[in-house]
Amino acid sequence: MKIILRIIGIAAILMGLLWTGQGAGLIMWPASSFMLAQRQWIMWGLLLVLLGAAVLLRSGKRK
User: Is 12 helix (H, G, I), strand (E, B) or coil?
Assistant: First the structure.
């Protein structure tokens, strides 16, 4: 279970960083994405990064 939570946490952090970068217009990939330069995706991305970090911290405390 610990490994699964870590994988989920890391995936959430990476996806959140991608969403944040796309929302800020820093990552313009893929070209057909509806998230490009849309500021609301910065907030959703940061929220997902925080959620992923919380899952990672929680996985470290499990026995």
Answer: helix
CA distances to 18, 20, 48, 60 from 37, in Å: 12, 10, 18, 35
pTM, entire model: 0.90
What pLDDT is recorded for position 63?
A: 61
62 vs 39: CA distance, rounded Å: 36
Helix (H, G, I), strand (E, B) or coil at 62: coil
Distance CA 34, CA 44 (A): 14
| Packing angle, helices 2-24 and 40-61, rounded to 10 | 160
- Indicate the domain borders of the chain: 2-61
